[in-house]
């Protein structure tokens, strides 16, 4: 029975274990720096907002690990990897491996501005961060730096708990990586309407503290925004330290090939810590795909990871938002736009040649998966272009009349 | 519970009886009168939708002088003074009346009396000039009077009915239904002679696609064939007919190639006619609206006279008229070349008799100006005061651009009509509010000489008055108080009937003298009755006895030749433009155009064009085309179809500047007229056709009325609002444009595909769709009926321009009564075959009410029914 050591129990690792258990016999050791197994990190926001409990979002509980005889080394950090000896050294001792999977994920980026190390300044990554925000009393003030997916989920979650939240965003509109300015505007309007203060095109300069505890955020125009908690959600960095230390090829992430194998044939890597074909990853869909490929590789089967277009959905109740593919402007690209001021719905499709390459939707996102499918499958959409933006229910059917009112007899 | 009132439909010359039940709120329930001899309860789609047309929207309710509301007294006095002054200064022939086949007999009588007996000019003509003047001339030449020999029953008693230049199915639908029913019952053979394949061809055993202008050649050939086959009624001819030999000789010399028909087709038709004694030849505008219309009429009558097939049950030539009271106008002498009661203006004895009957100061001795000449004289400044009643010459007369200019330049123009917003009324100095159908009272005469009552069912709106009263008021104010001292319609009718005794005494046909002393009560209760109505004779057919109204008592056969249309084709204008009606509209749409039901059938002015012509002109279906003649041009939607022959495209006549930007057919029609009748050649303009280049096309719907301003537009009511087709040039800010178009500042729901030029915008009021605009650089593809149906609903996906897969698009409307669309009919056609019109009717309801669409349903079945298996 092969010894498999997995470092990290994030969502990619959890999925890898699921696949491994489907086939073959393994002796699995699972390290995790967090003192728990795999949970659905994407669902921390509903936990923060109070719509779910942590128990609801655990995907692999103690019973699971027990049943499958997985050696859990939770709350224990890995301190070294000896690739020549094929041994992983944890804080509590060594574990030999036949195959090693590094799934260390990513680390939230903390802007190294003055005061970033004050108490009450935190990222939004794990249950501990979530709990810190949940513990902020109603009526207190919180600032979220970063108007991306995570920052807005943090802001909305705290706001739902009665916290007075201000979002400070450097760019001109919210979620600029997923949304165009129009959708960003609608989102901002929605958040503002529910009581969140949103400042865009706003640069933070310094975090002010008192008694080692965060007190206010000072903007570069000198404005001071008082706060009791400051959440920084400005991005993530692949956690590559372990990989680098043991001498694997590392770029922005730990470099892997299409089989998720690193520069060492016995070491694989998956998740937010990897770099594949120049790309790094932050959304869950490709991670699951990597887990699947890694499992195949470990089974000695042919598999190839392909980085497909991904879709994003903001998990803030009442803000239905969907984005998929690539919708940057470029001269070869054409767009179809739909907007309805009454319902604040907005849709934008980006077309290149005869194919849909990007879709942003705000409001009515029901057809999101269908658009995502068209993007992934590179479907030729020229025949459905007229009604494309209205979704699958409006495709096919009899040709429309172009003859004014009088084709009752024509054809 | 309100009483039901028996009246008569105001549309075509069939003259159907209707039962009107006022609903108490200005609305009117309309049903066919089962006891009326014209229709026995049937009505067509137009008649059935009459209730939709009586709203007071846009009605003129008080007189207007120079665009300002005026008192009746002042307006009438102004009219009387202006006419008097003009006559005093320039003589009686410097004034003119242009009236209408929609006026009631009583209106006509008073207007004619005023002009011919008191003003002393014969310058009164009517839009009937455009309709059946050639028949009047042909009848008079052949019979001595303008007499329709037969009755509608003859269509049911005939073994062969030849329809010449008549799209009976669309233009006289109830007669068509009667004929179709008779054919189903007794196997009547039907021949349709028409350059176009019309819906009427659905019941045709033979369709002769005659070349334009080939009618007289066809009937000359027939006359020669009848002679060759020994089918001449020698006894009838020798005793009752003059001119047989000359007519036959001319006929034998005719060039039959002018018919454009194959020898086989000619032989088939000639053989059918020769062998079938009970033959009715129905003719209409295809004969009349021609520079040789009178000749054509006589060529038809010749064949009936030569065979003695006239005035017998199931036999005779039969003119069907286009207007409800064209016949009443003829009977009262409301044409420039007639006197009254079918008497002759140029006959001194007739003139003196009428003069003394009227106690008239002076009478004109020569014919007045016929319609086209009248407006030429107006343009030349010879007519200085004009009164137009109940018609719209700017739209209906040929060379419309000139007519418009002439009216603009006329020193004094009066229009009496329902609206001051017709293309003609907009140019008038004085507009007088007249009563409309449903409000007025009097009589009309239909195509088979049946006099029926139109009765008042709705209150007189505002200050509107009956036309006879307006003419009488002016007559009195001009100084003829006694002659125009009319108190009611019955009084006028009695005088009209009494005057017909004068005609009867001269041995003329039109004699209803038995009604000379009809009481007011009996007039109220008057039942439909065919004239003559004298002590000696009531109704029936004319001429079976061989007695005609010529000086010799014999009928005249005329030596006539076919003559090609006079508008010359050349390299620049190579096509011959045919014109006509569409099924659910009538005239200039002032009435039918108010009904959303009727506007569904063909909601836009169209150009039917043969595929070869379309290819040559660079046109594809749904393009817009500019049809240009020597007189002017107009724009139409292209409809490519084999139904029209190569070289002979077709457009409908109905669209005005009120309903379309640039689709007035009369602007293309040259003012070429028949030398005998003065009737314009409306169906034979020489034209060229080119693609209208537009940067954008649009389809607009709105719950509220809206003003369209683009280069091309056509606008009609739709269920719950209005619909318009539009096209124009330039790059526009569509949000601003649509806000202005629909008169709103709301921010619309928008769908934009900038690269393909697709812009769709929708406006909502309280969450319900209130307007939408669909723009495309190509003719707009929209499920029109479907999106119209969304007005007033949530319509969240209206901008998809089509129903989702979960909803069916009914398609363009075929059956107006039951509201059945083309797609619904196609869906109902069984895949295993065996579809019939009745089966489709059972399944969908189409064609089960008025039946006007049955021919179209049959066509759809023919086009889409699965072919029978080869074995």
TrEMBL record, chain A:
Top EC class, one word: oxidoreductase
Protein name, per record: Nitrite reductase [NAD(P)H]
**SUPFAM superfamilies, per this entry?**
FAD/NAD(P)-binding domain
State the EC number(s): 1.7.1.4
Q: Which residues form the FAD/NAD(P)-binding domain?
A: 3-296
Could you tell me the superkingdom of the organism this chain comes from? Bacteria
Entry keywords, A to Z: FAD, Flavoprotein, Oxidoreductase
Q: Name one GO molecular function term.
A: nitrite reductase [NAD(P)H] activity
Q: Where is the NADH-rubredoxin oxidoreductase C-terminal domain?
A: 311-378
Family per UniProt?
Answer: Belongs to the FAD-dependent oxidoreductase family.
The major lineage groups are:
Bacteria, Pseudomonadati, Pseudomonadota, Alphaproteobacteria, Rhodobacterales
Q: Which cofactor does it need?
A: FAD
Cross-referenced InterPro entries: FAD-bd_OxRdtase (IPR050260), FAD/NAD-bd_sf (IPR036188), FAD/NAD-binding_dom (IPR023753), FAD/NAD-linked_Rdtase_dimer_sf (IPR016156), Rubredoxin_C (IPR041575)
UniProtKB/TrEMBL annotation, chain B:
Xref: InterPro entries? Asp_de-COase-like_dom_sf, BFD-like_2Fe2S-bd_dom, BFD-like_2Fe2S-bd_dom_sf, CT_Nitrate-R-NapA-like, MoPterin_dinucl-bd_dom, Mopterin_OxRdtase, Mopterin_OxRdtase_4Fe-4S_dom, MopterinOxRdtase_cofactor_BS
The lineage's top-level taxon is Bacteria
Checking PROSITE patterns in the record gives: 4FE4S_MOW_BIS_MGD (PS51669), MOLYBDOPTERIN_PROK_1 (PS00551)
The enzyme class is oxidoreductase
Keyword tRNA processing recorded = no
**Residue ranges constituting the 4Fe-4S Mo/W bis-MGD-type domain according to the UniProt record:** 2-58
User: Which CDD domains does this one have?
Assistant: MopB_CT_Nitrate-R-NapA-like (cd02791), MopB_Nitrate-R-NapA-like (cd02754)
Q: Name one GO cellular component term.
A: oxidoreductase complex
Cofactor dependence is on: Mo-bis(molybdopterin guanine dinucleotide); [4Fe-4S] cluster
Named from the GO MF annotations, one term is: molybdopterin cofactor binding
* Keyword flag Metal-binding: yes
Q: What is its EC number?
A: 1.7.99.4
Keywords in alphabetical order, please: 4Fe-4S, Iron, Iron-sulfur, Metal-binding, Molybdenum, Nitrate assimilation, Oxidoreductase
Q: Example GO biological process term? A: nitrate assimilation
Q: Which family does it belong to?
A: Belongs to the prokaryotic molybdopterin-containing oxidoreductase family. NasA/NapA/NarB subfamily.
| The name this protein goes by in its record | Nitrate reductase
Q: Which organism is it from?
A: Cognatishimia activa
């Amino acid at each position: 029975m092969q010894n498999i050591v997995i470092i990290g129990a994030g969502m990619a690792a959890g999925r890898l274990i699921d696949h491994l258990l489907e086939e073959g016999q393994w002796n699995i050791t699972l390290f995790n720096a967090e003192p728990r197994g795999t949970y659905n990190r994407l669902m921390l926001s509903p936990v923060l907002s109070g719509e779910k409990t942590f128990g609801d979002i655990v995907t692999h509980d103690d019973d699971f690990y027990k049943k499958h005889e997985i050696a859990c080394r939770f709350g224990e950090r890995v301190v070294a990897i000896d690739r020549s000896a094929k041994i992983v050294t944890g804080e509590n001792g060594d574990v030999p491996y036949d195959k090693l999977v590094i799934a260390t994920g990513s680390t939230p980026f903390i802007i190294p501005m003055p005061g970033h190390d004050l108490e009450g300044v935190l990222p939004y990554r794990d249950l501990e961060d979530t709990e810190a925000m949940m513990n902020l009393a109603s009526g207190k003030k919180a600032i979220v730096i970063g108007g991306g997916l995570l920052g807005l989920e943090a802001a909305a979650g705290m706001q739902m708990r009665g916290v007075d939240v201000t979002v400070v965003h450097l760019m001109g509109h919210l979620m600029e990586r997923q949304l165009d300015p129009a959708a960003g505007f609608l989102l901002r309007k929605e958040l503002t309407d529910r009581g969140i203060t949103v400042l865009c095109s706003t640069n933070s300069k310094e975090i002010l503290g008192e008694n080692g505890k965060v007190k206010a955020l000072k903007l570069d125009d000198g404005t001071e925004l008082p706060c009791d908690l400051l959440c920084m959600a400005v991005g993530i960095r692949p956690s590559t330290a372990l990989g680098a230390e043991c001498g694997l090829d590392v770029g922005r992430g730990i470099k892997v090939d299409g089989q998720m194998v690193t520069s060492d044939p016995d070491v694989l890597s998956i998740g937010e810590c990897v770099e594949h074909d120049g790309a790094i990853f932050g959304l869950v869909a490709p991670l699951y795909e990597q887990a699947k490929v890694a499992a195949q590789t470990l089974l000695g089967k042919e598999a190839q990871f392909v980085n497909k277009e991904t879709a994003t959905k903001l998990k803030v109740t009442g803000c239905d938002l969907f984005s998929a593919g690539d919708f940057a402007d470029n001269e070869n690209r054409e767009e179809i736009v739909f907007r309805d001021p009454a319902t604040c719905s907005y849709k934008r499709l980006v077309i290149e040649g005869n194919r849909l390459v990007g879709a942003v939707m705000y409001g009515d996102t029901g057809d999101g998966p269908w658009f995502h499918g068209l993007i992934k499958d590179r479907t030729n959409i020229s025949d459905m272009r007229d009604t494309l933006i209205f979704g699958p229910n409006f495709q096919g059917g009899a040709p429309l009349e172009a003859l004014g009112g009088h084709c009752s007899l024509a054809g | 519970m309100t009483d039901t009132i028996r009246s008569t439909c105001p549309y075509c010359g069939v003259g159907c009886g209707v039962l009107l039940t006022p609903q108490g709120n200005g609305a009117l329930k309309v049903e066919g009168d089962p006891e009326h001899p014209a229709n026995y309860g049937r009505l067509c789609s137009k008649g059935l939708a009459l209730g939709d047309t009586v709203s007071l929207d846009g009605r003129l309710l008080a007189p207007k002088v120079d665009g300002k509301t005026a008192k009746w007294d002042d307006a009438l006095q102004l009219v009387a003074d202006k006419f008097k002054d003009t006559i005093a200064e320039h003589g009686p022939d410097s004034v003119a009346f242009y009236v209408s086949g929609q006026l009631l007999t009583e209106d006509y009588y008073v207007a004619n009396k005023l002009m011919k007996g008191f003003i002393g000019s014969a310058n009164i003509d009517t839009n009937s000039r455009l309709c059946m003047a050639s028949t009047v001339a042909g009848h008079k030449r052949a019979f001595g009077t303008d007499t329709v020999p037969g009755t509608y029953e003859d269509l049911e008693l005939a073994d062969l009915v030849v329809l010449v230049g008549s799209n009976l199915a669309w233009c006289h639908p109830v007669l068509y239904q009667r004929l179709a029913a008779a054919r189903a019952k007794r196997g009547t053979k039907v021949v349709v002679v028409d350059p176009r394949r019309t819906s009427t061809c659905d019941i045709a055993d033979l369709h002769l696609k005659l070349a334009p202008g080939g009618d007289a050649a066809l009937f000359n050939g027939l006359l020669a064939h009848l002679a060759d086959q020994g089918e001449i009624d020698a006894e009838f001819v020798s005793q009752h007919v003059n001119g047989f030999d000359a007519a036959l000789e001319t006929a034998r010399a005719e060039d039959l190639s002018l018919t454009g028909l194959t020898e086989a087709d000619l032989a088939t038709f000639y053989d059918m006619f020769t062998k079938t004694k009970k033959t009715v030849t129905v003719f209409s505008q295809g004969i009349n609206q021609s520079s040789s219309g009178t000749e054509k009429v006589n060529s038809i009558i010749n064949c009936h006279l030569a065979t003695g097939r006239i005035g017998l049950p199931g036999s005779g030539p039969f003119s069907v008229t286009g207007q409800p009271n064209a016949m009443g106008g003829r009977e009262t002498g409301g044409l420039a070349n007639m006197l009254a009661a079918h008497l002759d203006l140029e006959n001194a004895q007739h003139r003196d008799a009428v003069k003394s009957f009227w106690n008239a100061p002076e009478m004109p001795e020569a014919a007045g100006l016929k319609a086209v000449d009248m407006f030429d004289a107006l343009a030349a400044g010879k007519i200085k005061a004009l009164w137009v009643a109940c018609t719209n010459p700017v739209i209906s007369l040929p060379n419309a651009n000139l007519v418009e200019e002439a009216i603009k330049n006329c020193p004094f123009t009066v229009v009496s009509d329902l609206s001051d917003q017709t293309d003609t009324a907009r140019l008038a100095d004085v507009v007088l509010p007249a009563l409309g159908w449903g409000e007025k009272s009097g009589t009309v005469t239909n195509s088979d000489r049946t006099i029926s009552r139109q009765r008042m069912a709705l209150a007189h709106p505002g200050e509107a008055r009956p036309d006879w009263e307006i003419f009488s008021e002016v007559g009195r104010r001009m100084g003829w108080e006694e002659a125009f001292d009319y108190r009611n319609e019955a009084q006028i009718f009695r005088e009209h009937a009494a005057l017909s005794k004068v005609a009867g005494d001269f041995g003329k046909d039109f004699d209803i003298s038995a009604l000379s002393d009809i009481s007011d009560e009996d007039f109220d209760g008057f039942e439909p009755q065919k004239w003559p109505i004298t002590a000696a004779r009531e109704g029936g057919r004319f001429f079976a006895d061989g007695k005609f109204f010529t000086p010799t008592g014999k009928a005249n056969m005329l030596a006539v030749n076919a003559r090609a249309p006079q508008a010359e084709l050349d390299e620049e204008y190579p096509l011959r433009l045919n014109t006509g009606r569409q099924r659910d509209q009538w005239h200039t749409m002032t009435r039918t155009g108010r009904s959303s039901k009727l506007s569904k059938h063909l909601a836009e002015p169209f150009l039917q064009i043969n595929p070869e012509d379309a290819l040559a002109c660079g046109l594809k279906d749904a393009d817009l085309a500019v049809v240009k003649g020597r007189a002017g041009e107009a724009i139409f939607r292209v409809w490519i179809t084999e139904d029209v022959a190569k070289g002979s495209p077709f457009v409908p006549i109905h669209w005005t500047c009120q309903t379309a930007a640039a689709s007035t057919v009369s602007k293309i029609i040259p003012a070429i007229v028949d030398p005998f009748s003065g009737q314009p050649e409306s169906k034979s303009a020489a034209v060229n056709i080119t693609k209208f280049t537009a940067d954008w096309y649009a389809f607009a719907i709105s719950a509220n009325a809206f003003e369209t301003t683009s280069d091309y537009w056509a606008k009609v009511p739709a269920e719950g609002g209005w619909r318009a087709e539009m096209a124009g040039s330039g790059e526009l800010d569509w949000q601003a444009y649509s806000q202005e178009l629909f008169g709103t500042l709301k921010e619309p729901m928008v769908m934009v595909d900038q690269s393909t030029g697709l812009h769709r915008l929708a406006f909502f009021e309280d969450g319900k769709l209130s307007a939408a605009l669909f723009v495309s650089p190509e003719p707009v593809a929209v499920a029109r009926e479907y999106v119209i149906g969304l007005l007033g609903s949530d319509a969240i996906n209206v901008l998809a321009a089509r129903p989702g897969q979960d909803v069916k698009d009914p398609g363009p409307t075929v059956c107006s009564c039951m509201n059945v669309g083309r797609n619904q009919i196609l869906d109902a056609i069984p895949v295993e075959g065996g579809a019939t019109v009745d089966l489709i009717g059972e399944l969908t309801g189409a064609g089960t009410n008025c039946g006007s669409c049955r021919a179209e349903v049959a066509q759809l079945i023919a086009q889409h029914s699965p072919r029978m298996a080869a074995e």
